[in-house]
Amino acid sequence: MSAPHSSHVPILSANSYGSSYLPVGRVKTFRYEPSMMSADSGVDDRVGNSPHPNIIELRKIINDLTSNSQELLTEKLFLENEVNQLKKRASRLDDEIRILKEPPFIVGFIQDIVESEAIVRSSNGTIFQVSINPRIDHELLRPGARVSLNQDTLAIIEVLNDGWDPLVSTSEIVEKPKTTFDDIGGMDEEILSIRQAIELPLTKPDAFEKMGLTPPKGVLLTGPPGTGKTMLAKAIANSTSATFLGLVGSELAQKYIGEGGRLVRELFDLAKEKAPAIIFIDEIDSIGSKRLDSSTSGDREVQRTLMQLLSEMDGFESTQNVKIIAATNRPELLDKALLRPGRFDRIIEIGLPDSSARNKILKILTQDMPLNKSINLKQIANKTDGFSGAELKALVMEAGMKAISEGQELVSDSDFSLALSTIEDNRKDPLRNNHEGLYG
């Protein structure tokens, strides 16, 4: 064989490099280009004892590219994870938007079950015969159950948990009132009477049973405004461990037919569930007025509420552990059926305090007030003839404010004299005593 071209590497034989050889008959040629040689090519491209400069630069580039690829891979994984979280959040927001766009359900009550359908009463009082969602457990479908109805077909979608009306549930006084019987002056007989009728049956029910007596069911407090009717109710709530439910009678007057009666029924049901309990209805004349033949639709609804109240107070079901206290300053407007024994067994009239009672009230109101030694509360009580407890409280308030405005540390007799003249002027003002004067 002739020698190859100078640009090719000669054929290597076994004699040239010992054990490193190529088999005879197989020829492999290499084109020599120094720039393409690497450390792994088997050809020594070192200059002296150090690597070739091109090799060092390539290694740096390779290391940088490797580091950048690792950083990009980590960033990619982080971005993929963030994208997945954003997709989940977007899905939740889409579900919330879909729920918000859905039409609302109507809340109603089941009145009867007819085979596979039900007769329901919607919130506005209308009665319908509707279909039932087959997924609902039929044991939950009972008369009186609260259900949600489809707005278009009025079909029963779901059975709701029984819950009290917010007006009824919020009537419960969780914290006991701070008013005690010691804070009430000049009403010793009235306090004794209400404690006998309300507190005694709750604290000593066995004593009534031994005597063969049925405890009183209710007490009606009457009297002019500001005489302390509500304070008596608060003191009773403070002196007993019974649940206290308090509301104003006008809250029971509702717009739709049957709603007022339902509130009364739920109020007594809640009281029976939390018995022993006391129900306090202030301004009961708003729903307990006399029933007349000529009346409007609103008056008839108020009368339905009154009849439900009468039934709950003296109906078939026992209300032994539920006592009722009602207050009004217009007893002449009340229906006779509400005043008979068995409903309100005691009618306690709270009149204007006399001189001795006014003196006790002033002592209670000024017990924490720094008074000048020259003040004689008995003389002030004699000057306040015809004042109610609320007016006496206003008198003490005026005297205290006058002393504060003058920068005094003690309330003087002159402060009470100025306050008394202010209160008397207000009492004589026709705008305050006659509501027609406000608009005439």
Tell me what you see in this structure.
This protein is of the alpha/beta class and 440 residues long. The chain folds into three domains: 106-162, Beta Barrel (OB fold (Dihydrolipoamide Acetyltransferase, E2P)); 168-349, P-loop containing nucleotide triphosphate hydrolases (Rossmann fold, 3-Layer(aba) Sandwich); 355-438, Helicase, Ruva Protein, domain 3 (Orthogonal Bundle). 40% of the residues lie in helices and 13% in strands. It contains 13 helices and eleven strands. The protein has helices at residues 53-101, 166-169, 188-203, 205-211, 229-239, 259-273, 297-313, 336-339, 355-365, 377-383, 389-405, 413-428, 430-433; strands at residues 106-114, 117-122, 127-131, 146-149, 156-159, 172-173, 218-222, 243-248, 277-282, 322-328, 346-349. A six-stranded mixed beta sheet has the order 6-8-9-10-7-11. Strands 3-2-1-4-5 form a five-stranded antiparallel beta sheet, with no helix packed on it. A hairpin with a 4-residue loop joins strand 2 and strand 3. 22% of the residues are buried. The model is unreliable at 1-47 and 434-440 (pLDDT under 50).
